[in-house]
Amino acid sequence: MDNHLIKKQNIKDYIDFKYDKVIAFASVNPMDYYDGDFNEKFDVKKFNDTISKTLNSTQLKELNDILSGRKNEHTDHNSISDCFYPRHNILFLNKDKIIHHITVCFECNAMKSSKQPLASMKNLEDFFSSLSLKVFSDPFEHAKYYDSLKSSHRYKLQ
User: Fold this and answer.
1) Average pLDDT over every residue of 30-36
2) Which of 21, 94, 106, 108 sits most deeply, having the most CB atoms within 10 A of its CB?
3) What are the extents of the domains in the chain?
């Protein structure tokens, strides 16, 4: 077996903590709820412009592989701005309290989290897109797309 494959298989799991629910979501205006961190009290009702997905076991396995660095596709992303407006987020909840979060801004290609992931931006982009939480590097395109989804009432908070 290739040594590179052995190393990738032996990488520790990123998700090594207890949780009972994982939510991925995208928002048009993250500053409505994000003030530099998430606190333990999470109320989805205050997110008026948010589209979210509760992750299933298959999606969680994929996410763990991405965050652990087992699946890591590097691409050259040029920073577009120095903003950090995390429109894409993943929250790990235990008894309705946030125990871990990952916030991602695809406009400036940066992420923040309560535990440093080994994920590439390309893999995170693909992951969010696979959840129908499409990624845009332009905030106006992003807002137009998510506003149209919201107005169509096809997606609701889960």
Assistant:
1) 65
2) 106
3) 3-152
